[in-house]
Design a protein that fits this description.
The protein is mostly helical. It has 24 helices and no strands.
Length: 481
């Protein structure tokens, strides 16, 4: 009976107008809810999902098909949800085990205020390059960096911007990164050709960021409040046993991932080490350690900064992000699998007459998908499907597309307040998008460099007709995972 009902509904092609209707409703409700009412972005996304479902139904899709689109969208986010859960456990276990306190304690002794922003950016870049994950880097080194920077009276937005810039540099350039592999795979580009091609936009972006952080850091030269730092160190010493040996835990996790151990088991090992350190090093009970994993670490202190730094983590702290991810992907699933995104991007392609127009369209399509679907993976997947044939038809090497996907998709996800990446950052580092936006220099510099290359033709590689046929066969016939 269900099959008969589904067959009776004749599907109609979705026009550009109808394709953008859900976006318009979602963005209007998002602006009103988040800016005016100062509420979470979940409800606006649900409104967008409802409007998208109505549009899809009007164009001939059955309710069962619309449900399946939402389930497919959620399925795409399951790997990210697993990582989110593990990151919450890592933060709790490493705080409870004294790892974060140890990193802050020794960081305060080694890093000067004037060089802090530049240094934390480089450290996050190295760690993220080694482990291939910006999220894991921000949740560990980033959290510790926030503690160090705040104790030096450096604004939270500046610290977060430096952490994000470094973390996303490493994530983007790491052969272990999921988004890097995704962009290369979907376009039929060799992974290391993709990474080498990204050097030309990413390295200049990093150098510009480091110059900016060096200049910003000069204002903090000699302004360190030693009394405040001494107070913080004493407060940490009263709460935690700190030892350089505890620094082996993050080092071991980095080494494991560098040895190509998958991120999930590597993070689990990090969680277990932190868990046992809370019991056997910090002297807490088994009940305390389990409670930390579930609800986060809880302490009482006269030092307000210590309270802010260490009362966090645990599985429950990630529920907001997890629910946000699920809601966002129901919206994104309907948009993608109903063909609404394809309809919108096809309209954009009509104005992309030359290479500059095509590169610009790709970058802005990735940004728009980040805003509309609230997930960086979709901002890579959908534009790759929509633009690959056009790149090949214009004799452009697909690595030009894979680079644009990362420049426009991976990096700009942090600027959309309701995107899962921005929500993750806000949750883990307690800094709002508005505060860190001006200082996430790498993330908005690289897309501009990429567009400039499209305009000038610099490092835009072309291919022969024979190579075009090879890539079409490789990419368009489904041989790319």
């Amino acid at each position: 009976m269900v099959e008969k009902v589904m067959k009776k509904r004749e599907k109609k092609e979705i026009s550009f107008f109808w394709a953008i209707v859900p976006f318009v409703f979602m963005i209007i409700s998002m602006l009103f809810t988040v800016v005016k009412l100062e509420q979470a972005p979940h409800i606006p996304l649900l409104i967008g999902t409802a409007i998208a479902a109505i549009v899809a139904y009007y164009h001939g899709f059955s309710w069962l098909e619309i449900e399946e689109m939402m389930y497919k969208g959620i399925k795409l986010a399951l790997p990210a949800i697993v990582i989110i859960i593990l990151v919450g456990l890592v933060i709790g276990a490493w705080i409870g085990g004294g790892v974060v306190a140890t990193m802050i304690y020794f960081g305060l002794k080694l890093i000067t205020p004037s060089m802090f922003l530049l240094t934390i950016c480089l450290i996050c870049g190295i760690v993220s390059l080694a482990i291939g994950s910006s999220w894991s880097t921000m949740a560990t080194v980033g959290v510790a960096g926030m503690g160090i920077g705040l104790s030096m009276d450096i604004p939270a937005g500046m610290i977060a911007g430096a952490v994000i810039s470094g973390a996303y540099f490493g994530d983007k350039m790491s052969p272990l990164s999921d988004t890097t592999n995704l962009a290369a795979g979907l376009t039929g580009t060799d992974l290391f050709d993709h990474i080498k091609h990204m050097f030309f936009t990413t390295i200049p972006g990093l150098l510009i960021s480091l110059v900016v952080f060096f200049i910003l850091g000069r204002q903090f030269d000699g302004k360190i409040d030693t009394a405040k730092i001494d107070s913080l160190n004493k407060a940490m010493e009263a709460q935690f046993v700190m030892s350089p040996w505890l620094l082996l835990i993050p080092v071991i996790v980095i080494v494991l991932v560098a040895m190509k151990v998958p991120a999930v088991p590597a993070l689990v090992i990090g969680i277990l080490m932190g868990f046992f350190c809370q019991i056997f090093v910090q002297g807490d009970t088994l009940k305390d350690a389990v409670s930390t994993l579930q609800a986060g670490y809880v302490l009482e202190s006269d030092n307000k900064l210590v309270m802010e730094l260490f009362n966090k983590g645990g599985l429950e702290s990630m529920f907001y992000t997890i629910s946000m991810t699920i809601v966002a992907m129901t919206f994104g699933g309907i948009l993608e699998f109903s063909g609404m995104l394809e309809a919108a991007i096809k309209q954009i392609l009509k104005y992309a007459k030359n290479t500059f127009g095509l590169v610009t369209a790709t970058i802005f399509s990735c940004i728009g998908t980040n805003a509309g679907c609230a997930e960086q993976y979709i901002s890579i997947v959908v534009p790759s499907r929509m633009y690959l044939k056009t790149y090949l038809d214009r004799n452009l090497h697909p690595k030009n597309l894979s680079r644009c996907l990362e420049d426009g998709g991976t990096l700009t996800s942090v600027f959309v307040p309701w995107n899962t990446c921005a929500v993750f950052i806000t949750t883990t580092m307690s800094v709002h998008v508005i505060d860190y936006f001006p200082y996430a220099v790498l993330n908005y510099t690289i897309p501009l460099i990429s567009i400039l290359y499209g305009l000038t033709g610099f490092k835009i590689e072309k291919i022969t007709d024979e190579q075009v046929e090879y890539f079409k066969k490789k990419s368009l016939e489904g041989s790319v995972a």
